[in-house]
């Protein structure tokens, strides 16, 4: 009876062992099959997208290798009506972007004089997800300012005849009727830029920051002309790229919230600066700054700005701006990714390394080395635990089977 029981138990263990080994082999085959068949989408853009600049919109057209099933949309406005088009299984795709919608950026420039209208267009080939083969393009349209031509009619008459003895009268008349030649010199308008830096005016441009980090805002214009122009930074705002905007400096260059941006300091005629702390919109990962710079001629060799007396302007309802003339240009800072204090990254260097890994291969599993071990993604950790568990069960089953065979051999003897 004992021998039959042991035989039955051995049979069950053998079946269990065979089942577990079969399950382990099937799991291995499944993982291998998934890895082999996780191929990249076989589609791409042929050539470069074409851009047509209209009076109130821009049209972006592109050709693809295979029928297009994805989406073309303005970055940050996937769900905004009029800012996205869906693929129709054709090898062409088009999107018409209205200037009055989709947060199209307007930037007035002085050299060359005109207006840039720009936006970022994202092209995704998968109908639901963003993949490695997707592309993004910075699309710009430039509208040059019309030249103003001033003309006047000039009537030319023959000089009257004079007697030789009336030379003095003739000279007087000639001097009064001769045309005066007008000599003009063209002075190029300054070129301006806006930077958000770390560690003062000579620091590096910031692309990643944490809330509360101290940064340095710097506005500067370069010009070949000396002691000609003055700059006034005004109408500054911070934007999240999705339509939300908060005013920081008003039309006179006076701060609206001293906790976000204080009064600017002008070390030279064509430079401005201010220190501030990094902030962010709630649940928004990035932001950028936009300002206007008013370029005006010096008055009596001095720069007189509307921001010189912001406290006085508040009492006067800032009516001084109505009489201030000058050429306005738009400047933008780089987009900055802002982390909360408790986002889980020890330093900004960790974020930069993580971003570099994502940019190199979006489908790779990101593994970050920590001080006391290795951090894996949740999927990788689950697969690892399953494999270790199966190996452990297999080892236990094999050990039990060997022990039972030994006991059976002993009983037979």
UniProtKB/TrEMBL annotation:
Membrane topology note: Single-pass type I membrane protein
Pfam families, alphabetized: CUT_C, CUT_N
GO cellular component, as recorded: plasma membrane
Compartments, record wording: Cell membrane
Main location: membrane
Superkingdom classification of source: Eukaryota
This protein's record includes keyword Signal: yes
Transmembrane segments: 21-40, 381-404
Name of the protein in question: Cuticlin-1
Originating species: Trichinella patagoniensis
């Amino acid at each position: 009876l004992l021998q039959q029981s042991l035989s039955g138990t051995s049979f069950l263990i053998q079946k269990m062992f065979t089942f577990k080994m079969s399950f382990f082999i099937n799991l291995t085959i499944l993982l291998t099959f998934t890895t082999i068949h996780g191929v990249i989408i076989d589609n791409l853009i042929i050539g470069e997208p074409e851009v047509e600049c209209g009076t109130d919109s821009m049209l972006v057209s592109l050709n693809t290798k295979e029928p297009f099933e994805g989406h073309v949309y303005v970055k940050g406005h996937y769900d905004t009506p009029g800012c996205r088009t869906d693929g129709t299984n054709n090898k062409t795709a088009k999107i018409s972007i209205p200037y009055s919608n989709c947060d199209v950026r307007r930037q007035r420039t002085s050299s060359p004089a005109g207006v840039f209208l720009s936006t970022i267009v994202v092209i995704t080939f998968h109908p639901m997800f963003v993949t490695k083969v997707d592309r993004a393009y910075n699309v710009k349209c430039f509208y040059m300012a019309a030249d103003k031509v001033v003309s006047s009619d000039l009537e030319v008459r023959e000089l009257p005849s004079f007697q030789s003895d009336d030379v003095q009268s003739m000279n007087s008349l000639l001097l009064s009727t001769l045309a005066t030649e007008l000599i003009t010199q063209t002075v190029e308008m300054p070129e301006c830029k806006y930077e958000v830096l770390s560690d003062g005016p000579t620091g590096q441009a910031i692309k990643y920051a944490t809330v509360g980090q101290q940064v340095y805002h710097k506005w500067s214009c370069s010009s070949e002309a000396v002691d000609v122009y003055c700059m006034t930074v005004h109408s500054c705002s911070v934007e999240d790229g999705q339509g939300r905007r908060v005013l920081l400096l008003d039309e006179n260059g006076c701060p609206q919230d001293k906790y976000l941006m204080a009064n600017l300091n002008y070390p030279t005629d064509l430079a401005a600066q201010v220190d501030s702390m990094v902030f962010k919109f709630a649940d928004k990962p990035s932001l950028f700054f936009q300002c206007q710079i008013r370029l005006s001629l010096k008055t009596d060799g001095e720069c007189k700005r509307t921001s010189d007396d912001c406290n006085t302007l508040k009492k006067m309802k800032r009516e001084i701006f109505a009489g201030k003339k000058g050429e306005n240009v738009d400047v933008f800072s780089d987009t900055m990714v802002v982390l909360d204090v408790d986002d889980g990254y020890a330093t900004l260097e960790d974020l930069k390394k993580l971003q570099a890994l994502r940019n190199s291969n979006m489908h790779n599993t990101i593994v970050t080395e920590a001080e006391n071990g290795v951090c894996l993604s949740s999927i990788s950790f689950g697969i690892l635990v399953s494999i270790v568990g199966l190996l452990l069960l297999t080892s236990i089953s094999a050990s039990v089977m060997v022990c039972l065979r030994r006991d059976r051999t002993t009983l037979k003897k």
